[in-house]
């Protein structure tokens, strides 16, 4: 999911995401993980080979670029997910030990009794993929908290209107909350895509465009203003960023409060 350098289109042109996200993968330098990631990228562009895809996806580690890329591919391509389930089900027929040997990522899960029927194994394979995704979401969340802790309290200036905002640990936790993620999921995105956007909040806010300001409708606090910004991620996606500004003379300041992904095209 993390790309060390990725071009994002924006009204003012294109900009490169800074290497802020490099932290997540600074420790992942072995050739196998790099090869697996490259294999998954290739598989998403050429004729699909279930065996090679499963190898690139399930022979990696939770939190790696290969796993993140794999989940993005199967989200966007349900037929590939079905093929992956069948490939994993075939391997499960050889037993749990043989399966974990071929796909080391499964070693992080509790051993399971393999169902004898093909239909049952396909269902088990789907269950295993879902469990791995939950682990990946947890890993990404925790890594994002640590990653963004480096910018807590720092001024982040919007390049278009000069508005300065900050993030706190509380703001980061809110952006990564189940409720915040659910909003993006309801808009057709995955939890992992939402978390990736949060990882990029500094870049996204800096290059976002102001849309509107309104009063604090929820808290009814006369000393609070809510500002909405939009940041284009790609031709299909934008991030809706909410700022909360305190105009209280004793507690002035603007915080990046929430983030939500929204499609720029009708959902498929």
What does this 3D model show about the protein?
- There is one protein chain.
- The protein is of the alpha+beta class and 268 residues long.
- The chain is 46% helix and 19% strand.
- The chain has a four-stranded antiparallel β-sheet with strand order 5-6-7-8. A two-stranded antiparallel sheet has the order 1-2. A two-stranded antiparallel ribbon has the order 3-4.
- The N terminus is likely disordered.
Could you list some keywords that capture this structure?
elongated, 19% strand, 8 strands, disordered N terminus, 268 residues, alpha+beta, two-stranded antiparallel sheet, four-stranded antiparallel β-sheet
Number of strands: 8
What sequence of helices (H) and strands (E) makes up the elements?
EEHHHHHHHEEHHHHEEEE
Strand order of the largest sheet: 5-6-7-8
Largest sheet: 4 strands, antiparallel
Provide the β-strand percentage band. 15-25%
Total of helices: 11
Instruction: Tell me, briefly, the overall form.
Output: elongated
Distance between the termini: 22 Å
